[in-house]
Amino acid sequence: MDGLRHLPLTPPSVPASPSVSQWCKEEQSKAMSTVTDTTMEELKEWNRRYMDKFGFVFLICASGRGTPEILAELKKRYTNRPIVELENAAHEEMKITELRIQRLFATAEVAAPSVASLDPVTKAGDRLGIIGAYLTAVPKTSPENITGTSLRSKPPITTHVLDVSHGAPASGMEVILEKWIYDSNQPPTFAEQDHPGWKTLGCSETNSDGRSGQLMDIMDYIEPGFFRITFNTGKYAPMGFYPYVSIVFQVRENQKMEHFHVPLLHSPFSFTTYRGS
């Protein structure tokens, strides 16, 4: 599966930077404090099974999780289909990345080490530069200026696309996010697909990890209503069955503080969507 190249499979022979090593210890502190000989052996066995089934390591954001919780999650995810588990692994990697980026900036505020003082081993082991590029890869944005400040680290609505026919992220697919402004209390009907009541909030192209750029402002509270994400599947897969895919969903009043991740799992002759986290 080509998508596996995006997972962090760092060889044991390449030492991690001191900062990353320390963060790993802190993130896994609760797990290590709750581990027993029995659970350790069980974890090893289930990790081996997981690797044999999916072909990549079991990834989970261990911060604040005890060993029993991690083991239970491993057993639960082991039953998934490979394409679903690839998505789960990418999501967990993103959570780990965001946590470490936050710590990186917090550390930088206390002390900013000189780049010249880093030895070659530290430079080779330190993946933070790669992680930063992974997070900040935002291709095209909307013609309208997308701004906004918030306690959130990302917009309330996000998406990404997986090409299930290749088992890899779908790079370069155009995405448009719209909001229904004609009547917020009355949902749009099937006959109103081209109604002027749809307002474009943002547009982008998916990057090499299948994630779109910022499609709307970052804000603490999303205004309730009806939203539509449209994917230009016809341009991405000209010989496919679908010229485009539109997904309409509702954000309710009691959900305005929540995050809505609406992925697309696409192949030339089928597609699936769901509400992620």
From TrEMBL:
Domain Oxo-4-hydroxy-4-carboxy-5-ureidoimidazoline decarboxylase: 18-102
Record's keyword terms, sorted: Decarboxylase, Hydrolase, Lyase, Purine metabolism
One Gene Ontology CC term in the entry: peroxisome
Pathway(s) per entry: Purine metabolism; urate degradation; (S)-allantoin from urate: step 3/3
GO molecular function: 2-oxo-4-hydroxy-4-carboxy-5-ureidoimidazoline decarboxylase activity; hydroxyisourate hydrolase activity
Domain Transthyretin/hydroxyisourate hydrolase: 157-276
Top-rank taxon: Eukaryota
CDD domains associated with the record: TLP_HIUase
Protein's UniProt keywords contain Aminoacyl-tRNA synthetase: no
Catalytic activity of the protein: 5-hydroxyisourate + H2O = 5-hydroxy-2-oxo-4-ureido-2,5-dihydro-1H-imidazole-5-carboxylate + H(+); 5-hydroxy-2-oxo-4-ureido-2,5-dihydro-1H-imidazole-5-carboxylate + H(+) = (S)-allantoin + CO2
UniProt-listed GO biological process terms: purine nucleobase metabolic process; urate catabolic process
InterPro entries: Hydroxyisourate_hydrolase, OHCU_decarboxylase, OHCU_decarboxylase_sf, Thyroxine_BS, Transthyretin/HIU_hydrolase_d, Transthyretin/HIU_hydrolase_sf
Region (Disordered): 1-21
Name of this chain's protein: 5-hydroxyisourate hydrolase
Organism: Rhynchospora pubera
Organism placement in taxonomy: Eukaryota, Viridiplantae, Streptophyta, Embryophyta, Tracheophyta
